[in-house]
Amino acid sequence: MQTYDLIIVGGGIGGSALAAVMAQAGRSVLLLEQTEVYEDKVRGEWIAPWGVAEVHRLGLYDLLVGAGGHHITRHVTFDESLDPGTAEASALPLSIFREGVPGPLCLRHPLHCQTLFDAARAAGAVALRGVIVNSVEAGPRPRVVYEHDGQTYEATARLLAGADGRASQVREAAGITLHQDRAHHWFGGLLVKDVVGWDPQLQAIGTEGDFGFLAFPQGGGMVRVYGGYALDQAQRFKGADGARRFLDAFDLGCSPANRCLTAGAPAGPLFSYVNADSWTDQPYGPGVVLVGDAAGWNDPIIGLGLSITYRDVRIVSELLKSADDWERLDLEPYREERAERMRRLRFAAKLQAALDMEFGEAARQRRRRHFERAADDPTLRLHSLAVMAGPEVAPPETFTEAHRARVLED
């Protein structure tokens, strides 16, 4: 029987970050990761400015930058109803959202995971790869039975953290219910290499015809691209040449620079998934706490998966480091903050999806009117402030049906 202060199931970004921070604080940590090699899963490569601030607070910023973290400093919104030159002339500087943060931080997901996993091990955590978790028991003394290198082990801890993603085994063992709303559109992602001519400091979004796009440069001629399309087009990019057809869909007149993307080559798999939000009412139970996607996730249309995860890790680690008696640990502040945070981000994502990922003439005219009205009334863009600066920064009235109706002219 092995005994630890903290067992973490899932050695991705959330689990490895939590392991590194808690091991640095002198707690005994067991980190269990199923995979032998981190693979490109088309997720988790863009950290919003408020998420970068969380990385700073965790003391992990220099580590990520040293691993190749790449800052984006400008944003342009393109659209079929806008002149491309006018759109480019109104590029938004991304250093305005958080003091000392030049803009979002990008780092390829496999490298990001490996960097944090190595940091956890270097800090003293027992960090294992190729693990099969056979059983998980919640309760005052949580227990995990797992296989590693052909041997079966049993471990207990003062607390068990579930950082094991959307199909969380820890969440299921704790009996925590996951809620999910209705899907709005398909959302696909692809890494593109050999991109020449795209400004490496520029991120862009845009909508034209029946396709909405997002592009986030990673540095070194690599750009992560995402595309949204209607729910009734599930087969649109299926097949052996799906990645190439997906990339060709970025050849849009509203953003001439997209030709730099289509001239590149797919550098990884294309994954498409529905965009729905999911959440838990309470991300903890007896002997268990959930972080990251295990506790519910936000619609990727606003790209906040990593920022959410890093705030989860920061809040949970601060609560753990502030208490010696974890049996009496009060995780209610985490639940309260996360519930309101995710409520606000669900609202912001639904609003953004209605603007960017609805197609046809009526949607095009609504976007055109929105751009014109927002030029005179910046409050119509307050949900974007929540995305970039943090959900707590935007006024509470931003997250009301009255505000939604005002933005969408409902």
Task: Summarize the structure in words.
With 410 residues, the protein is of the alpha+beta class. Helices cover 34% and strands 25% of the residues. The protein has helices spanning 13-24, 49-58, 61-66, 84-89, 109-122, 169-174, 242-248, 258-262, 305-321, 332-356, 361-376, 382-389, 401-408, and strands at residues 2-9, 29-32, 46-47, 70-71, 74-79, 92-93, 105-106, 126-128, 132-137, 143-148, 151-162, 178-180, 186-193, 202-208, 211-219, 222-229, 265-266, 271-274, 278-280, 284-285, 288-290. Strands 1, 2, 8, 9, 10, 11, 20 and 21 form an eight-stranded mixed sheet that branches. The chain is globular. It starts with a strand and ends with a helix. The mean pLDDT is 96.
Largest sheet: 8 strands, mixed
**Tally of separate helices:** 13
Which geometry do the CA atoms define? globular
| Uncertain regions spanning at least 5 consecutive residues | none
Would you count the extended β strands for me?
Answer: 21
Residue share in β-strands: 15-25%
Helical residues, percent: 25-40%
- Average pLDDT, all residues: 96
Structural class: alpha+beta
C-alpha Rg, in Å? 21 Å
N-to-C span:
61 Å
Strand-helix topology:
Blueprint: E1 2-9, H1 13-24, E2 29-32, E3 46-47, H2 49-58, H3 61-66, E4 70-71, E5 74-79, H4 84-89, E6 92-93, E7 105-106, H5 109-122, E8 126-128, E9 132-137, E10 143-148, E11 151-162, H6 169-174, E12 178-180, E13 186-193, E14 202-208, E15 211-219, E16 222-229, H7 242-248, H8 258-262, E17 265-266, E18 271-274, E19 278-280, E20 284-285, E21 288-290, H9 305-321, H10 332-356, H11 361-376, H12 382-389, H13 401-408
Parallel strand pairs: 1-2, 1-11, 2-8, 5-14, 11-21
Antiparallel strand pairs: 3-7, 4-7, 5-6, 9-10, 10-11, 12-19, 13-16, 13-17, 13-18, 14-15, 15-16, 20-21
